[in-house]
UniProtKB/TrEMBL annotation:
Keywords from the named record: Amino-acid transport, Cell membrane, Membrane, Transmembrane, Transmembrane helix, Transport
Domain (ABC transmembrane type-1): residue spans on this chain: 16-210
Record-given protein name: Amino acid ABC transporter membrane protein 2 (PAAT family)
Lineage: Bacteria, Bacillati, Actinomycetota, Actinomycetes, Micromonosporales
Family classification: Belongs to the binding-protein-dependent transport system permease family. HisMQ subfamily.
Length: 218
């Protein structure tokens, strides 16, 4: 085994832990906020829908890299300084929750209207109708796009490297630079190949699960 492999592997493992934690936080926050906002998008109140729609359209319409730059570089100008990990988690969560809200809204509105009318006829208030009748049925419809969003967010964590977060991609880049300076050989192919394999192993099973669920639920 080449002498450079163990220290590089250890360094990449540190970056992988950061990537995994960032993905877990971003996915959890996106689902929690997105389910709430997507459900509220089905309220009869036009004001509530307009406010949430503005949130969704703003953060869905911006590239993630622009959101990260805004949070990390622009907010400090007005006195709001955040560290790299927090900035990355907030940026990914804003984008993810906006997309998740659209997934939930579409799933809720795809439930036959008769289900809502039947629940209302039983005297159930709106929160009870959503909790016991609509959301359980909407969950089945939302699962395939939800898994697709999880895959997308996991892949997009690599963009956190642009603001200096030591994720697995940034760790790979620094390892390549260090090996180039010390030995003259970048070893870029095996290092970046290892990063590719990590993302492939994580994302491929989820993609296959999403396709399987889509076929089965259809």
């Amino acid at each position: 085994m080449p002498a450079w492999v163990p220290p590089v592997a250890t360094y990449l493992a540190t970056g992988l832990r950061t990537t995994a934690l960032l993905a877990a936080i971003s996915i959890g926050a996106s689902i929690a906020i997105g389910v709430l906002l997507g459900t509220l998008l089905t309220l009869p109140s036009r004001l509530v829908r307009a406010v949430i729609r503005a949130y969704v359209e703003i953060w869905r319409g911006l590239p993630i890299i622009i959101i990260l730059f805004f949070i990390f570089f622009v907010l400090p100008i007005i006195g709001l300084t955040v560290e790299t990990f927090t900035a990355a988690a907030i940026g990914l969560s804003l984008w993810g929750s906006a997309n998740m809200a659209e997934v939930v809204r579409g799933a809720v509105q795809s439930v036959p209207r008769g289900q809502t009318e039947a629940a209302a006829a039983l005297g159930l208030p709106w929160p009870a109708r959503m909790r016991y009748v609509i959301l359980p049925q909407a969950t089945r419809r939302a699962l395939p796009p939800l898994i697709g969003l999880v895959v997308n967010l996991t892949q997009q964590t690599s963009l956190a490297a642009v603001i200096g977060l030591l994720d697995i991609l940034e760790a790979a880049q620094r390892s390549i630079e260090r090996l180039t300076l010390t030995g003259g050989d970048t070893h870029a192919v095996p290092i970046l190949g290892g990063v590719l394999v990590v993302f492939f192993v994580i994302c491929l099973p989820l993609t296959m699960l999403s396709r399987w669920l889509e076929r089965r639920l259809h």
